[in-house]
Amino acid sequence: MNEVAQTSLAAHGSGVGLMDLFWQAGFVVKMVMLGLLAASIWTWAIIFDKATRYAAFRRQLNNFENNFWSGQSLEELYHTLADRKTTGMSSVFVAAMREWKKSFEKGARSPVGLQTRIEKAMDVTIARENETLESRLGFLASVGSAAPFVGLFGTVVGIMTSFQAIAASEQTSLAVVAPGIAEALLATAIGLVAAIPAVVAYNKLSSDATKLSSRMEAFADEFSSILSRQIDEKMTAR
Prior knowledge:
Blueprint: H1 2-12, H2 18-24, H3 27-68, H4 74-81, H5 89-105, H6 111-134, H7 137-169, H8 174-237
Helix pairs in contact: 1-7, 2-8, 3-7, 3-8, 4-5, 5-6, 5-8, 6-8, 7-8
């Protein structure tokens, strides 16, 4: 038993670099570290992807608002967007106009019912857009909350293993103890490296998603008012 412990402690003392600490770690600690590294890589991939998509989404909102308020007729704008793949406000606008046209083609008689259907169509579209905006943000929240504890689990297992080897060898000098403790603490460090960017990114991206959603909802309210006035005019003309 002493020979095994001596060998384990000698291995711990053979290197103190990060890669040395990783290779000297036990199987469980290695799996924890690899899992946290994979989570960190996926976290950064989501961050860059979402930042790019949100910037493009924001530009699309700005472009649509410029076109919508430029004085172009609603019919012309609808025909321009109807056959295209739309997102954001464009999708909300197309959904409302499609319901508007279908209802009048079928001879809508109730302005209240028509207004309700149009608002429902816009609400459903906004909900779908929000689902796209918020997709994979839950992963960032999970990593931010769980990664430190997963790293701590790896540290606890590593320290237990080191203490068992130290107790068996009956050697307690700092030179013998330190490498094993450093090896175990590396798991916690990797957990924090994964968690901190995930938490910061989740808060920022969630805030951005909320702002983009608010802009769509504000447009839906304004457009609903515009259509309400036109519905009243058409019903009165009948």
